[in-house]
Automatic annotation (TrEMBL):
Protein's recorded name: Bestrophin homolog
Membrane topology: Multi-pass membrane protein
Signal peptide as annotated in the record: 1-18
GO cellular component, as recorded: chloride channel complex; plasma membrane
Keyword terms: Cell membrane, Chloride, Chloride channel, Ion channel, Ion transport, Membrane, Signal, Transmembrane, Transmembrane helix, Transport
Lineage: Eukaryota, Metazoa, Ecdysozoa, Nematoda, Chromadorea
Highest taxon listed in the record's lineage: Eukaryota
Chief subcellular location: membrane
Organism per entry: Necator americanus (Human hookworm)
Length: 120
């Protein structure tokens, strides 16, 4: 093995090692478990301690007493909203008495059909 091959082999080995463990285990690397645990704990603490405690509403420089919609009400009524329509929404049943139906799978007697499959 030449020295160039050795250098290239060791370089690719370091790349593979970095790909296997991208955060590393050195002293200067992040401890991701600690970061995740702390952020989860702080998020839960904020939610638990702040529930039902909304701050009072105070006027600031951007306070506006008059509310103006982004668009006129006429244009809002003119817009056609597309909604999802299922594939069976336009299906018409032959008789209103037919509320449900069974699909047979070609098995004549379920008990004997089960026995036939066990015997095979």
């Amino acid at each position: 093995m030449t020295s160039i091959q050795f250098v290239l082999y060791m370089g690719w080995l370091k790349v593979a090692e970095a790909l296997l463990n991208p955060w590393g285990l050195d002293d200067d690397d992040f401890e991701t478990n600690m970061l995740i645990d702390r952020n989860l704990a702080m998020g839960l603490k904020i939610v638990d301690d702040g529930y039902g405690k909304t701050p009072e509403l105070r006027k600031d420089a951007f306070w506006d007493d008059q509310w103006v919609p982004l668009y006129s009400e006429e244009s809002a009524w003119e817009k056609k909203y597309k909604h999802h329509e299922g594939s069976l929404s336009q299906m018409k049943l032959v008789s209103p008495d037919i509320g449900s139906f069974r699909i047979t799978l070609g098995i004549k007697d379920p008990l004997t059909a089960a026995l036939r499959t066990i015997r095979k």
